[in-house]
Amino acid sequence: MNMKKCFLWWCLLAGWASAGMAQRPTTVCHEDGRVTFQYKNDHAKEVMVDVQFAGRNAMKRDAQTGLWTVTLGPAAPDLYPYCFVVDGVSVMNPECEAYFPNEGFKNSLLEIPSRQGSLPHDIKPVPHGTVEYVHYYSKSLGGTNNAIVYLPPSYNKEKQKKYPVFYLISGTTDTEEVYYKVGRVNYILDNLLAEGKAEEMIVVLPYGNPTKLLPQQPEGDGRPQTQFGNDVFSLDLVNDLMPYVEQHYRTINDADHRAIGGFSRGGNQGLSNGLRHLDKFSYLCSYSSFTSTDIPDVYDHATETNSKIHLFWLGVGTDDFLYGNARDYMELLDKKGIRSVKEYTHDKFGHTWMNAKYFLDKTLRLLFRPEAAEEAMKKGKPALAATGKEQQFTASVMARLFPRAVVSPEFGYDHITFRINAPTAKEVLFESEYGTKPMQKDADGVWSIRIEDHVTETFKYCFVVDGTQVADPSNMYLSPDKGFKYSVSNNPAAPYSLAAMGDIPHGRVSYDLNLQVAYYFPPVDDYSLLPIIRLIPGKDDTMESWFKVGGADAMADKLLAEGKTKPCVMLTGVFAEASFNNTKIYTLKASDYKTWAERRKALEQLLLSLK
After folding, report:
1. Is the dihedral of CA 272, 278, 280, 283 positive or negative?
2. Using CA atoms, how far apart are residues 485 and 469, in angstroms rounded to an integer?
3. SS3 state at 465
4. Helix or strand holding residue 166 (H, E)
5. Alpha helices in 433-587, H assignment, sequence order
6. Phi, psi of 360 (to 5 degrees)
7. CA 359, CA 287: separation in Å to the nearest integer?
8. Contact at 8 Å (CB) between 421 and 88?
9. How far is Cα 283 from Cα 312, in angstroms, rounded to an integer?
10. Within 337-369, where are the H helices?
11. How many CA atoms does the CB half-sphere of 266 hold within 13 Å?
């Protein structure tokens, strides 16, 4: 790849707004740490706000302004998930651009700013790394899987340098985006690198629940798995994702330069795979988690196990519902003579991403620094003594936390069924790019509709519950809009669905966090003189929309694999007009087309014309 020419392109790009998350004035943060929540809804009879630092609280409606309001706190500066509960149905703040990516619940994100950039995840004026979205064919999964890759600021400048790799896994029901958009691993590491407090590294964010990507999911009750080792995730990690990363990025491929860890279920997955593969990983991190106590040849061979591990780091909040299990695991390590570092918190609301970010900051300072890691290990203290009052994570707790979900959307051969549980609603409508239709309620209070039109298209939709727009609570695919976030119907049978592409080469979508521009690079080595397609977002779109809803990268990958187009670079955002060394530039404006189907058709025709 001709990185010099790519760098010239980057220099010509005109930046967008600040890299920070947009928090519109409907949520006001006061200097004393209190927060005023405001929500406009003329249809609602009762509205509450549910925010992590204060729980669920009633809001009052001002008859003159029509705004539902409540002031809560004070709360410490941090990043908090929240939602509004409108007549019993949870909805995101339609005026907030930042959201929590998740398979199930739909929350917005509130940022209570710190003073003078005192938080590890603050967005500071320092060099920022690049975040890349990648697709790869997983033989273990039998389909295409997803991951996100963070590259440090020096990666595209020091072209011969190789880097250690940290595999960092999100928690139960989280997507691969959560350690990026909520955990802010990229900004935490950017800040530490700028201060010389961490080693440069590549961070890989896998998707922790890849079976959900299968067209036909395994039989089960829909609740999260708790056993790891020979599961699909573990097999994919070692046999598919790691080889992909090592083939496509400049990595140092030995145990001394690999780390693995995660939050909640991701911590279980990280420890399980790390301990089962100590020939591959020597830095192990668990954030609010624990793992199996019967991994062969690990716990009963302390001397050998200790010799292979540079850092064994475990953190948990004493108010976490997993604290009892995590403490017991720490105690087991002590009894077996296996060294570890233990960190406890008491003030971050238990099993939360406030804890996950705090623990991440602590461990990034130690990864791939053998002397610092050894010093931390020497200072490791015994597990806290048991009190007999610790909550244990049992099957009944799991059933309460993760009840069986309503299936929506459910794809049939020639139809799609959409559902939402809203037992007290009087009317629920299905709203999409193609119009609005009424839904029907069953005896259990679940509303549904069977759609037989446009079933092979990828389109935006939502439910309208007694006049309130609601994203599909059961669909993890959201349209990254500036305002209200619509759900996205990603039919596996769609023409450019990743699920049906098979084993083909994929390009990558890269987000430049300095310039706030997204670009697609095809799976070729040399990008010089390739044609460029400018993809201009629509009024309510973001720089992600052409890829996450439009599927521009998937379309280019498939047509290129079929020999129907030639490689090209696609950019979203605004950049200065220039000759680009006589490179041909094409432009597509989303605003010229009514639906995403029409936009995709226009892009398809353009890509075919390149041949």
Report:
1. positive
2. 9
3. strand
4. strand 165-169
5. 545-548, 552-561
6. -60, -45
7. 6
8. no
9. 6
10. 353-364
11. 28
pLDDT band at 529; cut points 50, 70, 90: confident
According to DSSP, residue 445 is labeled S
Q: HEC profile for 575-593?
A: ECCCCCCCCCEEEEEHHHC
Which residues, in sequence order, are CB contacts of 8 under 8 Å at separation 6+? none
CA distance 519 to 43: 41
Task: Write down all domains in the chain, each with its CATH number in brackets.
Answer: 3-17+515-610 (no CATH), 27-112 (2.60.40.10), 130-378 (3.40.50.1820), 410-489 (2.60.40.10)
Q: How many helices (H) and strands (E) does the chain have?
A: 14, 32
Token duo for residue 504: 């083909």
User: What's the CA gap between 460 and 489, in Å, rounded?
Assistant: 6
Q: Going by DSSP bridges, is the β-strand pair 311-317/341-345 parallel, antiparallel, or unpaired?
A: parallel
- The b-or-e profile of 244-254 (16+ CB within 10 A means b, else e) is bbeeebebbee
Determine the Cα–Cα distance for residues 468 and 303; give it in Å rounded to an integer.
61
3-state SS assignment for residue 514: coil
Give the count of alpha carbons within 13 A of 276, CB side only.
Answer: 19
Inter-residue contact 180 to 160 (CB < 8 Å): no
269: tokens are 């997955």
- Which tokens belong to 106? 């739909």
Structure token pair of residue 40: 């406009």
Condensed to tens digits (0 to 9), the pLDDT of residues 84-141 reads 999 999 999 999 999 999 999 999 999 999 987 789 999 999 999 999 999 999 999 9
- pLDDT bucket at 11, cuts 50 / 70 / 90: very low
Q: Locate 130 and state its tokens.
A: 């690049």
Q: How far apart are CA 338 and CA 307, in angstroms?
A: 10
End-to-end CA distance of the chain, in Å?
21
Give per-residue pLDDT as tens, 282-341.
999 999 999 999 998 999 999 999 999 999 999 999 999 999 999 999 999 999 999 999
**Sign of the CA dihedral running 344, 348, 352, 355:** negative
- Give the pair of three-digit tokens for residue 301: 């061979």
Half-sphere exposure of 373 (CA within 13 A, CB side): 25
Q: Give the three-state DSSP class for 184.
A: coil
Nearest to 385 by CA among 318, 463, 292: 318
CA-only gyration radius of the chain, Å:
24
CB-count exposure of residue 214 (10 Å: 0-12, 13-18, 19+): middle
Amino acid at 207: Y
- Could you tell me which residues come within 8 angstroms of residue 356 by beta carbon, excluding any fewer than 6 positions away? 171, 179, 183, 263, 287, 288
CA 243 vs. chain centroid, Å, equals: 22
Strands (E), 220-331: 258-263, 283-287, 311-317
- Give the count of beta carbons closer than 10 Å to the beta carbon of residue 278: 18
The token pair at 237 is 């990690």
Pairing of strands 60-61, 67-72: antiparallel
**Are 255 and 164 spatial neighbours (Cβ–Cβ below 8 Å)?**
no
For residues 479 and 545, the answer to whether their CB atoms sit within 8 Å is yes
Query: To the nearest 10°, the Cα dihedral for 30, 32, 34, 35?
Result: 20
